[in-house]
Amino acid sequence: MIMFNNKKTRHFISGVVVVALIVGVIMTRAIIGGVIDEYHIPFSQWPADLYLTQCFMIVIYTAVFTGLLSIPLWYFFLGESDDKN
């Protein structure tokens, strides 16, 4: 297991993991729900290529939105520090 010595780095990584989980759940519900509503195909009757395509879409969208939402987390946890005392 990777150990992060800096407390700010640990907080940033845990924040990114939480954001990735939230975005993954939202994307999964939106994409799978959208396919079921649009094509009127129950989840149990999906062909294999539809599973594969939707899985890749979920992974790609989750990665993109996690990256975009990690920018404010990076600035908050690892950005400029004001050490003026």
Account of the 3D structure:
- With about 80 residues, the chain is mainly alpha-helical.
- The chain has a domain at about 25-75.
- It has two helices and no strands.
- It is elongated, with a radius of gyration of 18 Å.
- The mean pLDDT is about 90.
Give a concise summary:
Keywords: Membrane, Transmembrane, Transmembrane helix. By secondary structure, this protein is mostly helical.
Which SSEs are present, and which pair or pack?
Blueprint: H1 7-39, H2 48-78
Low-confidence stretches: none
Distance from first to last alpha carbon:
36 Å
Considering DSSP H and I runs of 4 or more, what fraction of the residues is helical? over 70%
Largest sheet: none
Mean pLDDT: 90
Instruction: Label the overall shape.
Output: elongated
How much of the sequence lies in strands comes to: under 5%
| CA-based gyration radius | 18 Å
The helix/strand order is: HH
- Give the helix tally: 2
Let me know the number of strands. 0
Going by helix content, strand content and strand pairing, the class is mainly alpha
Features:
85 residues; mainly alpha
